[in-house]
Specification:
- By secondary structure, the protein is an alpha/beta fold.
- It has one domain: Nucleotidyltransferase, domain 5, CATH 3.30.420.
- Helices cover 48% and strands 20% of the residues.
- The chain has seven helices and six strands.
- The chain has a six-stranded mixed β-sheet with strand order 2-6-1-3-4-5.
- Strand 4 and strand 5 form a beta hairpin.
- Helix 3 runs antiparallel to helix 4 and helix 4 crosses helix 7.
Length: 174
Amino acid sequence: MPNICCTQKLTKELASESLTPAPGARGFTGWHADIIHLFRRKTVIAVNDETRFTLFMPGLVKKDFVQFDKAFIYHFKQALDLAGANRAQIAQAKLLLGGFCYHKTHNRSVLGTLNDMKVGLDYILKIRLGRLPETETEYRWIVTSLNETPCRGKDLQGVIFPKREMLNMIDAAG
């Protein structure tokens, strides 16, 4: 069951009850997420605690926040596909997700990675592209860029590459 650790801004959009601190979730169950406004549209960025694999969910509307688990699963599947996961790996990952719980953020290292990804995304969209992605090719380029960015953190052993780490985690779980 994914424990989505939400920032206060995202919590307001999800209209969740008061959030509790998250249990020490690892693997597929540990995620941190934040919302940013880009080009007058709401965009959510979610980062896996262990692999730093990043989900980019642009242009979300109110119904997406009401059924956030469906939006999350859709973008997770799409990001895995863009990372080169095969059908069996995607199916395995979806099974491991299960139901969703929402909690307060708790890991400053993951929040640091989340902020780094927000800066990278801001640069890609505002400086390079000048708008939200409109085509599959543009979306592919953004998601691939985010998940091929090397990451470091106090809770990580050296430098990791999110795409490689996520695919390795799926294979280890299968």
